[in-house]
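Sample pair:
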Amino acid sequence: MCVRDQWCCGPRRDAADGLVSMTLLDVWLSRSIPMCLLLQSLVLMALCFPSASMCPKGCICQRDPHLHGLNVTCSQSRLKEIPPSLPVDTVLLRLDHNQIGAVPDQTFHGLRLLRELNLSYNAVETLGEAAFSGIEGTLQVLDLSHNRITSVHKDAFARLKARVIVDDNPWHCDCALQQAISGMAHNHEAAARVLCRSSELRDQEGRPFLAVDTDLCNLAKRTTDYAMLVTMFGWFAMVISYVVYYVRQNQEDARRHLEYLKSLPSKPKKPDEADDISTVV
């Protein structure tokens, strides 16, 4: 691959006098590794360690020899979204103290070695069903504390084996959250730190989630059934009212029509008709 020129292959010759003129660089190259071999070494290093060149902007990527992967630190980088091109061999990912507002579905799908994910101190408001798809089997710690999370999909944590930290969020305690918490591997620790900023039960607002001893899913079902019953009763009452009004209106019209017929003068008999009757008799 090396081109034999004055930069790569030893001393250069002066075109004017044909003498060999040595520079300091030529002397260094003559006593050390040739430049072409150095360039080849750099190419091999780039091929062997592609993750270092793929480190996202604003992040620091350091190889961890103990975990056989990269520690990617993007803390306090003013990020508004999760970097789209994270190294596939990321083991520890720190995205804390940023302005990240959402966790798109399957955004971590290719990080099959990820063990720890820190998303604390951000602006995440909700979590979808596939927010952590692809890392369920390897993730050990998930920190979502100090965000703005109010609601999550009922299956957001269903397949996670990690210890989840979800405290200091303005949670709305409803059926979906109750199902999501119950699906965590370490649900008791997580639920103990969840405070209901709002709740389906007004007397539970401001209290720990574990203090909610009511099945919120059945409560929601009963509320829905009650609403449907009230709606059906309202429609039924409207139908009955219309039928009664229709019958009364028809009766009133029939009475008026009968009175009109009675008010009409009777038809007088003709003389010819009287004679015919007497002749017949």
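The chain has seven helices and twelve strands.
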